[in-house]
Design brief:
The protein has about 475 residues and is of the alpha/beta class. The chain has twelve helices and 20 strands. The chain has three domains: about 10-120, no CATH class; about 135-270, 3-Layer(aba) Sandwich (Rossmann fold); about 295-460, Dihydrodipicolinate Reductase, domain 2.
């Protein structure tokens, strides 16, 4: 078992010492990221571009979820050792490696231990792509702006995905570019943009943390020629939801300079609906058009996949309690959809969701076994999926929760499934969470083979992270991940 540190006798001194160590981690973490495209994590929590207190809170998270104290005193030497290695593009979980070193180190130095764990196949000469991949955002609404933030944040050494352009319809105001920049710079839900944004009005460009982004005005894909901006073989991320069939989305591919398309809405017809972590292997070298499905589908499919594999699922019902969206009216007005014309800020609005049926596209075993509905509620972000399931065998609360905890921490679904055991958790606690959904263990109900499970999800940011993962897969980006998932 990992070493448990005794409680300090002088808490203030202990805090200041750990604070100093966290502060000293930042330049090493940043250098590994900028120069080697190495991203460090603490039990799945991102450590890149984080403040001192955020790094310290990530360490406390380990104690809450793993029932084990893991402090900066243990992780700092591990980061120091990683900083001396010749590393190439990789995702490395420092927290898990540190615990493994405590369990398996056998008195060896950290450098020798890391060589055994990571090996020689992650040297700095390894390139995830032969050349940087151009990316275009077609549409710049809620998801488009969050995907932009993620692409800029994850620019790393600059030789992976590069956001080259944003395509929007021309606004009615003369200061359209300034307004677009302002919406990226400030967000009422997700807070300010982390960095700087410059406007080059005469060239219709934004410069975000050094990334030059061309703003292109067009009403439809056939009006765009990306090649005139030196954009080639770009992946176009369609955030509009206006076109969902293979034929309609193919209009993007007719634009010079465009090569592939990712739709941030459920696709129709032959368009593959991909939930990263479950059926992302459907994305192949020849894939041209894919859909990242919906936020709700991404929230429930990973958890359902884990349950199907472990317990089996005979049938079930999915109820989503969903934050209101721009599709609804702020006050009562005409709307083509049923009930959605009523005020989103004043009502719970019963509506339909296609997520239950969409599950079968990622998990064929559940075809015809799930029903679903949705309730839009007066909150701007973070939703909840309630899974009422009949499992293939009996279980109990403790067993099911422990299975989900280990799935969230150690399985290949660790990026998709989060886990909380807080008795005080509410929706705003999950704003900005990068998981597709977070399993609320305190709410679990089990009676024999019947269970009711509650899963939070940031329907904007968590979903955008899933879109980015699909985007990386479509581009051919391959991350080595350490330690390997069990």
């Amino acid at each position: 078992m990992p070493v448990k540190r005794p409680e300090p006798t002088d808490f203030f001194k202990d805090w200041k010492e750990r604070e100093a160590l966290a502060e000293a981690m930042i330049p090493m973490i940043g250098k590994l990221y900028r120069e080697n495209n190495v991203s460090l994590y603490m039990y799945g929590r991102n450590m890149v571009n984080q403040a001192v207190t955020d790094l310290m809170k990530a360490h406390r998270f380990v104690r809450q979820i793993e029932q084990n104290e893991l402090s900066e005193f243990e992780t700092f030497p591990m980061i120091e050792a990683l900083a001396t290695m010749d590393l190439g593009p990789a995702h490395i979980d420092v927290g898990k490696l540190t615990v493994q070193y405590q369990e398996l180190g056998n008195g060896r130095g950290r450098e020798a231990f890391l060589q055994d764990q990571i090996g020689e196949d992650v040297g700095s000469t390894r390139k995830p792509l032969p050349r940087p991949q151009d990316v275009v955002l077609y549409g710049f609404g809620r998801i488009g702006r969050l995907v932009a933030r993620l692409l800029i944040e994850k620019a790393g050494g600059g030789d992976l995905l590069r956001l080259r352009a944003i395509v929007v319809r021309k606004g009615r105001s003369d200061n359209d570019l300034e307004k677009r920049a302002s919406l990226l710079r400030r967000d009422s839900v997700h807070g300010p943009f982390k960095g700087t944004i410059r406007i080059i009005a005469e060239q219709n460009k934004l410069v975000c943390n050094g990334n030059e982004i061309q703003v292109i005005y067009a009403d439809s894909p056939d009006q765009v020629d990306y090649s005139q901006y030196d954009i080639n073989d770009a992946i176009v991320v369609d955030n509009t939801g206006l076109w969902r069939t293979e034929e309609d989305l193919g209009r993007h591919l007719a634009s010079p300079g465009a090569g592939k398309v990712v739709l941030t809405a459920p696709g129709k017809g032959n368009v593959p609906n991909v939930v990263y972590g479950v059926n992302h292997n459907e994305i192949g070298k020849d894939s041209k058009i894919i859909s990242a499905a919906s936020c709700t589908t991404n929230a429930i499919v990973p958890i359902l996949k884990a349950l199907v594999d472990e317990y089996g699922v005979e049938r079930g019902h999915v109820e989503t309690v969903h934050a209101y969206t721009n599709d609804q009216n702020l006050i009562d007005n005409y709307h083509k959809g049923e009930r959605r014309g009523r005020s989103a800020a004043l009502n719970m609005v019963l509506t339909e969701t296609g997520a239950a049926k969409a599950v079968a596209k990622a998990i064929p075993e559940l075809n015809g076994k799930l029903t679903g509905n949705a309730i839009r509620v007066p909150t701007p972000n973070v939703s909840m999926a309630i899974l009422n399931l009949q499992l293939g065998r009996d279980t109990d609360v403790d067993e099911l929760n422990e299975f989900m905890r280990r799935t969230a921490l150690f399985s290949p679904l660790q990026q998709q499934i989060g886990y909380t055991k807080s008795v005080e958790a509410v929706s705003t606690d999950f704003v900005g969470d990068r998981h597709a959904s977070i399993f609320d263990s305190r709410a679990t109900i089990v009676d024999g083979n019947s269970c009711v499970l509650y899963c939070w999800y940031d329907n904007e940011f968590g979903y955008s992270c899933q879109v980015l993962r699909c985007l990386e897969k479509l581009a051919g980006v391959s991350w080595l991940m350490f330690p390997l998932a069990k």
